[in-house]
Write the structure tokens for this entry.
Amino acid sequence: MPADPSDSKASPANTPQASSAPRVVAGIGTGAVHQATGHWTASAIAGDPDAKGWRRGLPVATPETRAWNLQGLQSLDHVGAQMLWELWGQRWPSQLDISDDHRSLIQRVADLSEAPAPIATPTFNQRYLALGGAVMAFLDQLLSFVGLLGQLLLDLLKLARAPQKGPWRDVSGHLYHFGATALPITALVGFLIGVVLAYLSAQQLKQFGADAFIVNLLGVSLVRELGPMLAAILIAGRSGSAITAQIGVMRVNEELDAMRVMGIPHGFRLVMPRAVALAIAMPLISVWTTVMALLGGMLASDIALGISPQFFINALPAAVDVANLLLAVGKTVVFGILIALVACHFGLRIEPNTESLGKGTTASVVTSITVVILVDALFAIAFRDIGV
């Protein structure tokens, strides 16, 4: 039965201030009916100073054991319906007396507020199958990459037999875009890295009075490792993504299918020119980045330690063996070929939709940088005795 209006628990609903404010007259006892009265709208709720107080005084909603009467509602909007739905614990009460308009409004709020189903914990078999699927996907990627590498070797042999038929215009265009246009950003990054490395090294060398050894430290680290690595990472992020995006757009526009129909091989006209261009450009960019990093280190050494540029230049050939420079130039050729192959690999595997294009470009950059670091580690282990 509805609670007596004279009951103390129902008194807030009968005050003049609460005559139009949203209120709930709580029923007493098992099977009692709660009555909602007033304007359950956003403006009424916002203008009610006791909105939080009377809600805290309500008993915990248990839809299975409580009934509600909403015939006393003067008005209801989506905010009020959301408020009621939360009072009910996001479940319909077992008994509900409500008009059809208000029921449809609360039903709309309930449909939009439905909590997602809890994610089931995967079983051992599901984990096992997921692991197997990941391994198979990795092997598929690896097999495709190895096939692309083998096709590149065949195309290079074809180019060597008939160089006059080679796509030299494409190679020269890629050389400009991958090499010449990358000089400003690589110079800036290299110079700043040299300055930072010199300042940090100077703080440590001062403690031992080994100021002059900053030339050895900067020379070996920049010429052998940091210069080539910086250049490769910048090119992987800049040119690798561009290669993947270019080939991916060709896939979306069905240009790759048109090339296949016309008998134009993808490897000879798309992959090989980019690989050759990066193999030529990477050593030059690496030397350029290293020189700019050494200039930054020389400037910072002069400011922080008082080592003159003349002393720095004279001591550098003795500090850095020529073998270190040759090793750095040699591995940047490998870096350039790998960056081109990885970028072309992901570009050719892009599906004809824009979502796949974005994912493929991201995967290309991440994979290129990872491959460069792994190969650099292999070079460091394999040639650890050279130039020492």
User: Anything to note?
Assistant: The mean pLDDT is 83. The radius of gyration is 36 Å. The chain has two domains: 8-112, 158-382.
